[in-house]
Amino acid sequence: MTINIASADNLHQSLDSEISPLSQAKGIYVTVHGHFYQPPRENPYLNIIERQPSAHPFHDWNERIFYECYRNNAFARIFNNDGDIVGIVNNYEYMSFNMGATLMSWLEKYDREVYQKIIEADRASCQRLNGHGNAIAQVYNHIILPLANERDKYTQVKWGKADFYNRFGRQPEGMWLAETAVDYPTLEVLIAEGIKFIILAPTQAERCREIGDSEEWLEVGGGQIDPTRPYRCYVNDKDKDYIDIFFYDGPISGDMGFGDVLLSSHHFYSRLSLAVRGDNRQSQIISVATDGETFGHHKKDTEKCLAYAFTKEFPQKGWTVTNYAHYLGIVTPTWEVELKPVTAWSCYHGVERWKDDCGCGGGGEYHQKWRKPLRETLNWLRDELTKVYEDVGYNYFKNPWLARDEYIDVILDRNPNSVEKFLHRHTSHQLSPSEQIDALRLLEMQRHSLLMFTSCGWFFEEISRPEGTQILRYASHALELAGEVAGVQLEKEFIDRLSNAPSNVKEYLNGEGVYRQAVLPSQVNLEQVTAHYALSSLYNEYQDEQSIYCYSTQKLDYQKQQIGSLTLAVGQVRLTSQITWESGHFIFAVLHLGGWDFHCCIQPFSSRLAYTQMKEELFAILKQASVVELILTMSRLFGNKSFDLQHLFAEERLAIMEKLTVTTKKRLDQLYTQVYRDNYSILLAFQRDEVPIPQELQVAAEVAISYRCIKVIEAINNTTPDLDNLEPYLLDLEAIANEADSLRCKLEIPKGKKTLEKLISSCVQQILSETSLDSLETHIQLIDKLIKIGKQLKLNLWLDKVQEIYYQFLHQKLLVNNDNLTEKNHLRLWMKLAEYLDIFFPV
Asked: Cβ distance 250 to 202 under 8 Å?
């Protein structure tokens, strides 16, 4: 009997397809959901995150968590027993996740590579799981929906969907609710907006039963619901209005966040396997959910546990890694559920945590009596802003609320052409330039009205925390916009109402104190932006057209002169908000008297003649080098209001402060170096006799050696990355490292870390296109030396990027094209490079 092998193969593939757990429900499925989210931290007036000292050594907490979590999950390492990298996994390709819109917006600007890895992971999961991607949408800016009015509920869901579609290129099937907070009116909105499923905590269910069973309800209000199956939740009409719900496994999810279940992939699997039901059902899903930041930020290195579990541990045990949408695609819910009236995953009292003193999120002696008056104050403001929006909005928009719902298109793309198309689509007539500004102000007022309800403002124990202050900043900007567009004065009553929110911090006393001390100083107007432009122009050479944060600047005239220690700059500039299109034309004069003393004056442009006369008069007085007369003249011409270094925005102020201290630091470095040299023999004596070195001498040694190291680093920066050119400097760094180590000195050389990392990256990039054996060997030797020196100097070099570059080259090019490995010397060098970068080389 002859067998047609091709036909047998086809039959085998067909049978495989029929029994594949990806196309037919069979066996154990596992889903790990990560709720990735960061609260919006941008200054509402500048649209940027300002430096957050508590996140040191990073610029802000978004950046810190990016390197500890978001990036690490896009490039999660798998190691062998020798500590070498044997795999790099994109965890987003295997885990279910939601990535908050405000976080994705930041990621898109900060690191396009990781942003694209997240998008690509969703596409890959779509291909693997029958068109169902891992990503689900999120309520736009994390509002507690049960506490929102119906209109805000709809806008939050619509914006979340639109943001998702803009990034992932498909409509979302599921949506993550902020804090999983839910009630039946919220479900109605989700159903109306086409959301198919949500994820809740098991404690949010009240009772359940098999669909079609008219009598037998199982009471599961204590969290006893079976989380291994999906449920259908009916709202109103049983035939049409329903949404499917997955309840994550509460105990295991809690262990992920607060226990040691992620200690290893085997430990993780063992804990998950305890959730498997032994009732011989055709399939079941083990699902867990927690904050995505758990994986790498809250619990260091746990992204590695996930990577191995997804790609090795679970498949080896016969489990299918899936997501909720895919499981719904192969399993139709056979059980229905009824929910408790109003619940959330992080409050035992429903949603009281975001409106009252319920005790959740507290600690120590702090109360939360401020929560209720804060919620009531913001509800009052929202309603007042609604009146303004409707009263004025109908002057410009055909349907103001439809315009608000679709304003997300502008938020996602503020290109003038996009804004003009939006206005053309929604306005009732051709708007004049001033009407366009007011129309955009109205929409921004509404955007900030939504942002001020971001849940984080109530989550913790004190109103003056950064989260509470941030939502008050959004409220402040909304108040200001309402005043500009409608002339209404709401701030006084707003502050009066805030005074009823008692703070736990004596210096603030109440919400009014927080608002006056922490919110009002952060307000920014066009005049302040002009002052910033003028002051920073002494150190930055601005182009004729340039952006400063969310403002476009047009330099119309600028002249700077210096006499002795005095520097005077006079100019005129036009500023335009890229958000509301409001603009201003200003003239300025800024005087630097030396050191920390600056004197800056601003006024609106009146005429070319007046500006020319002012400029000529000031520069004439400068030639006399009379500081007093110059300042008096500036006051006469501009008025008594002036600006100084403190009025610069934080980033530039810090940069200028660093420049102003260069001379002082250099003088101190030289002084400490002299002290170190003069007392070097004494230091050696202390060190030889193992006697603690006096603090003054230890500090002198650390400053002096760090200074010497910095000078060598600066020289390296000016040298071509070639082993012969760098050899003398590398020897110097080795000697410096040995000297510092012998005297137990802790060196402060942040630029050294960046310089060596940049050199290593440059060498690796060069190697990938190298054809000369000699040149290849030279660059690999250089990498070896640089890594060793980094270790000697205790710089903790960040080599993730170069590891990823070489790993990709190794597995996608080098090992695929065997011609690259035929030459033994080449093979030896490639293996050496893998060894230096801690990458396993499969030979």
From this structure: yes
**C-alpha angle with apex 358: 353 to 364, nearest 5 degrees?**
100
For residues 556, 562, 563, 564, the Cα torsion angle rounded to the nearest 10 degrees is 150
Contacts of 461 (CB under 8 A, 6+ apart): 361, 362, 363, 364, 366, 368, 504
> Cα(256)–Cα(269) distance, rounded to whole angstroms?
12
Helix H segments across 452-585?
456-459, 466-486, 491-498, 511-514, 526-536
Q: Are 799 and 761 in contact (CB under 8 A)?
A: no
Q: For the residues of 499-531, what is the DSSP string, one character each?
A: TTSB-SSTTT-BHHHHIIIIIGGG---HHHHHH
**Residue 93 in tokens:** 């390709």
Q: How far apart are CA 522 and CA 524, in angstroms?
A: 6
Q: Evaluate whether 524 touches 575 at the Cβ level (below 8 Å).
A: no
Residues 6+ apart with CB under 8 A from 91: 73, 74, 76, 121, 295, 303, 306, 307, 310
Residue 354 contacts residue 455 (beta carbons within 8 Å): yes
Q: Which two tokens stand for residue 409?
A: 């298109």
Query: From CA 157, how far away is CA 101, in angstroms rounded?
Result: 11
Query: Cα 824 vs. chain centroid, distance in angstroms?
Result: 46
Nearest to 582 by CA among 442, 478, 444, 438: 438
- What is the DSSP-derived secondary structure letter of residue 549? T
CATH code: domain 24-339 is 3.20.110.20
Report helix, strand and coil shares of the chain as percent, to nearest 5.
Answer: 55, 15, 30
Instruction: DSSP for 338-405, please give it.
Output: EE-SSBBTTBTTSSGGGTS--STT-BTTB--TTHHHHHHHHHHHHHHHHHHHHHHHTTTBSSHHHHHH
- What is the token pair recorded at 770? 């190298």
- Residue 546 phi/psi, 5-degree rounding, is -160, 155
- Angstrom distance (rounded) from CA 586 to CA 609: 14
Question: What distance in Å separates the CA atoms of residue 25 and residue 249, rounded to the nearest whole number?
Answer: 20
Positive or negative: CA dihedral 159, 163, 169, 170: negative
Tokens 């929202």 correspond to what residue?
382
Q: Which amino acid is at 797?
A: L
DSSP state of 814: I
Q: What is the pTM of this model?
A: 0.93
Alpha-carbon span 457 to 475, nearest angstrom = 12
Tokens of 727: 């050899």
| pLDDT-derived band at 773, boundaries 50, 70, 90 | confident
The answer to whether 820 and 826 are in contact (CB under 8 A) is yes
- Phi and psi at 302, nearest 5°, equal -70, -15
User: With contact defined as beta carbons under 8 Å apart, do 809 and 88 qualify?
Assistant: no
Whole-number Å distance between alpha carbons of 297 and 65: 6
Which letter does DSSP use for residue 141 in this model? T
Peptide bond into 721 cis (omega under 30): no
The pLDDT, as a whole number, for residue 631 is 93
Percent of the chain exceeding pLDDT 90 equals 81
The one-letter code for the residue type at 809 is: F
Instruction: Please compute Rg for the chain using Cα positions.
Output: 32
Beta bridge partner(s), residue 590? 569, 600
185-191-194 Cα angle (round to 5)? 150
Give the tens place of pLDDT for each residue, 560-617: 999 988 999 999 999 999 999 999 999 999 999 988 899 999 999 999 999 999 999 9
CA dist 772 and 776 (Å) reads: 6
